[in-house]
Design goal:
The chain is an alpha+beta fold and 310 residues long. Helix 5 links the parallel strand 3 and strand 4.
Length: 310
């Protein structure tokens, strides 16, 4: 009984049998044609069987070669699948999510719940406002706030938001007995920098009952670009802040801020879960996405999109 042939020789024979061409087999395997011919010769000597024959300038499998080929081809497929299975088992179970800064705090505080149910998955969180795109191979999922126009990406709308006008309780106490909107207009207003400025100005106009008011007119003394810092400034009593409900909720719940006015957004801005269309989600990323689709509505039930909102 001949000894078992080398794996390289079998791999070369599988390619030659598939393409019926030494040239194409060499190109596919990234080796020279002479190397292909030598491997076939070695295999034939090892098996003591002629596997291919030349017909003019072409080659074809002999009767015995044609009998042998399907077994080797199937074996190579099984071998490759086995290697893939081992690689999957050994691969670190990791999911990387890019989240806008305004939702990063919520996500970090919520992650222990995910880890409780999926301790085997490591979560890497990037905080970024940079528009997501299909060329970023480092990120599996993104949580974004916008209009959903992300080329090459699959977008799943999940929440809308509300605009809230908030102030520190200490400032509110100073204005006790005074008309709320008039008192608020007498205070400094903190700058707002975001895409949904139209919603912000609409909220201010409704709150003050003055269609000429807008954030750029009011926020003339203190201008903070980062949304988190705006809220920190408001908590310390530096003025009135206009922000998203999702961002202010922890501070409202803990009574660090008081809501003067709230208004549902009327523009098409939404929170979206986003991932590349051409790159299938890993099992870990799909697991995390399913968890997000449950966790966000649980924590923001009044912001869940209804079918009429989609």
């Amino acid at each position: 009984m001949p000894s078992f042939p080398s794996m390289n020789a079998l791999r070369v024979f599988a390619a030659v049998g598939k393409y019926q061409s030494i040239q194409q087999a060499a190109k596919t395997l990234h080796i020279s044609e002479s190397a292909v011919s030598q491997q076939i010769k070695n295999l034939e000597e090892r098996l003591q069987v002629q596997l291919i024959e030349r017909v003019g300038r072409t080659i074809k499998l002999t009767e015995k070669g044609a009998l042998f080929y399907p077994f080797i081809d199937n074996g190579m497929v099984c071998f490759t699948e086995g290697l893939d299975a081992l690689e999957t088992l050994n691969r670190e179970k990791l999911v990387t999510i890019s989240v806008i800064p305004s939702m990063a705090k919520w996500l970090i505080h919520r992650l222990p719940d995910f880890k409780k149910f999926h301790p085997e998955i490591r979560v890497r969180v990037h905080s970024s406002n940079i528009p997501t795109n299909e060329t970023n191979t480092e990120v599996d999922l993104s949580l974004r706030f916008g209009l959903g126009n992300y080329p090459g990406m699959t977008t799943t709308p999940i929440l809308h938001d509300k605009i809230v006008i908030v102030v520190a309780p200490s400032l509110l106490a100073e204005g006790a007995g005074i008309n709320l909107s008039e008192y608020a207009l007498s205070l400094p207003w903190l700058g707002y920098h975001a895409k949904d400025i139209e919603d912000v100005n609409q909220a201010i106009q409704r709150f003050t009952d003055d269609k000429t008011q807008n954030i750029s007119k009011l926020a003339s003394k203190i201008d903070v670009h980062d949304a988190i810092f705006v809220l920190e400034a408001a908590i310390s009593g530096q003025g009135v802040a206009v922000t998203k409900h999702t961002l202010a909720l922890p501070y409202l719940t803990s009574s660090k801020l008081h809501c003067l006015f709230e208004m549902p957004t009327f523009t098409a801005f939404r929170y979206f879960i986003v991932h590349p269309k051409k790159r299938p989600l890993s099992v870990e990323a799909e697991t995390f996405q399913n968890w997000l689709m449950t966790a966000l509505p649980e924590d923001f039930p009044e912001l869940v999109l209804r079918s009429v909102d989609l």
